[in-house]
Amino acid sequence: MTLLLEGKSALVTGGASGIGRATAVALSREGARVLVQDRAEAGAQETVGLINAAGGQAVSIGGDVTNESDVQAMVAMAVASFGRLDVAFNNAGISPAAANSALQRTHELSLTAWQKLIDVNLTGVFLCMKHQIPHMLAGGGGAIVNTASVAGLVGLPTAAAYVAGKHGVIGLTKTAAMEYAREGIRVNAVCPGYVLTPMTQDGVARRGEELLNKVPMHRLGRPEEIAEAVVWMSCERASFVTGSFYTVDGGYYAA
Length: 255
Ligand SMILES: NC(=O)c1ccc[n+]([C@@H]2O[C@H](COP(=O)([O-])OP(=O)(O)OC[C@H]3O[C@@H](n4cnc5c(N)ncnc54)[C@H](O)[C@@H]3O)[C@@H](O)[C@H]2O)c1
Description:
Elements: E1 9-13, H1 18-29, E2 33-37, H2 41-53, E3 58-61, H3 68-82, E4 87-90, H4 111-139, E5 142-147, H5 160-180, E6 185-192, H6 201-212, H7 223-234, E7 245-248
Parallel strand pairs: 1-2, 1-4, 2-3, 4-5, 5-6, 6-7
Helix pairs in contact: 1-2, 1-7, 3-4, 4-5
Bound molecules: nicotinamide-adenine-dinucleotide.
Nicotinamide-adenine-dinucleotide binds next to helix 1 and helix 4.
């Protein structure tokens, strides 16, 4: 059986953990060679270890997606390692808690917390696309998937900067999709609902039942369930799909 991404070169940001790690592993399972990026470099190396142990081919790099020279170095390494860039999963992100702004309403949010969340969750995605697209244009096309969230589609009290950033990711995704549609680059977004990862562990421990009650399936998602949607959007089976966003959320957005 032919693999979905045989011979492709892929890049995953935030690949040390959670959804990024699961997706790096899934892209490799489908035949892609994968550059795993994360500011937590040791974790990125662990993901590479998982992929290589399963017979795949991966390399890692550290760096911060909000730092343009780190992003340039990441893209350059993918191209140097694998000769081209076909698939990019721009996924690195942080929660309100990581910006010390958990449970704060809009008027309580500091400018520092706002800027931190927007920098990582929105500007980081812009910088990645800015430096990935020239290589995809040179290579005759590609597929970009950005991680938004159901928070990119609905409001969530006490998460103003996270919600604004994720809505922004969907806007960026739609715009880039239109700009490059005739040059073979497809750009889509995945909108996970509540998924059990290190990012959500604390919130789930504190508010588990309250969160589950918002999900028609009444369970949390697994990172691997998000990865399957990303693999599909990245491969030729999604050849007519661009500018779209897909919820993978156990029914949350429909409810
Ligand atoms: N877990 C959920 O319920 C959920 C729901 C919707 C959307 N998301 C989004 O999915 C993405 C992945 O989240 P996750 O749940 O797997 O979390 P996670 O914390 O397990 O993984 C995020 C990874 O991103 C990395 N990272 C953070 N800031 C970075 C930066 N500036 N530069 C490089 N790497 C950076 C972290 O080191 C971490 O390894 C995020 O964009 C998040 O907003 C998660």
